[in-house]
Amino acid sequence: xxxxxxxxxxxxxxxxxxxxxxxxxxxxxxxxxxxxxxxxxxxxxxxxxxxxxxxxxxxxxxxxxxxxxxxxxxxxxxxxxxxxxxxxxxxxxxxxxxxxxxxxxxxxxxxxxxxxxxxxxxx
Length: 123
What we know:
The chain is mainly α and 123 residues long. It is built from 4 helices and 3 strands.
């Protein structure tokens, strides 16, 4: 998809809406590989120069999400990718798999999630 000003605004609005559902602060959104490379290196460490390969990347420590709008084919895929990356921010302990996919599907259908808190045993 071509990143237009209207698309940028709609992505940012979607990010705020879904972040509220996941009970997380809205992330800083990066919507092009140039924006990833312009970020400080410590923020995008690990997936800085390979980010272009993915539909999206979540940088957990800094509450940053990259959506590769050039690679994403349509709005449905863009929305699913956004929710996928926000799920990584809300559920940092979940790896890709059935439980993670279930969380993404529930998020797309409008479910809301309580804020993340560490277990008392691990505080």
